[in-house]
Give the backbone structure.
Amino acid sequence: MIQLFHVTKYYEGCLALSDISLRIDKGECVLLTGPSGAGKTSLLKLIFGAEHPDDGQILVQNRNIARLRRADVPYHRRTMGFVLQDFKLLPHRTVFENVALPLIIRGLSSFESRRKVIEALRAVGMEHKQTTLASVLSAGEQQRACIARAIVNSPIILLADEPTGNLDPQLTIEIAELFKAINARGTTVMMATHNRQVVEQLNGRVLRLDCGHLLSDQGASA
Ligand SMILES: Nc1ncnc2c1ncn2[C@@H]1O[C@H](COP(=O)(O)OP(=O)(O)O)[C@@H](O)[C@H]1O
Ligand SMILES: [Mg+2]
């Protein structure tokens, strides 16, 4: 599903990731831990294809994402959803409109879009908020809407970067539970978090990064 071979990434001459080799299989739940600056966000961005490695290769579903043809990039992005810490919803649009955005970009008919948006909102318990403006949602609701937006294209892989970083402990439990349920339905989940509670709750494979090095990988097969 996802394979990294000796991946190294620099930012302006500074090493962010060093010689990372790793394999993630379909349906896995992977928790990326480690202190701030360890390289968690960089690793997720590389897999998403938002950044490129300086060395090494990344295969997602057996495709080398550094060598994707321009025409294949939208398909690659659609196989993945990405949830961030700081929600980034369009504040003056409704929940429905925010969640529908990836489908509009994809050019889906409004009939098909509607069905998918409702399905995604139902999965995160936000069906009743579809006409609410994003700007008036609580933090927990905003993150639910973001998760709905990330899963609306039925991604094979759901990436999440500290998705509970701005939430209180109770909301953190609820959002972690949502990721667990999405993973249980077959979606591969890869989440960066330094919340120990979330790591325990999701009970997945833990990858620990420190200063760009992969320190431990329970169950590594690469
Ligand atoms: N766009 C960037 N420009 C320069 N340095 C960056 C950039 N993004 C990340 N870094 C550096 O790369 C290292 C890893 O950062 P990051 O992947 O954000 O770690 P984490 O998500 O674990 O906190 C850090 O030293 C950080 O300062
Ligand atoms: Mg980060």
In short: The CA atoms of residues 13 and 54 lie 11 Å apart. Residues 11-12, 14, 16, 34, 36-42 surround adenosine-5'-diphosphate (ligand 1) (CB under 6 Å).
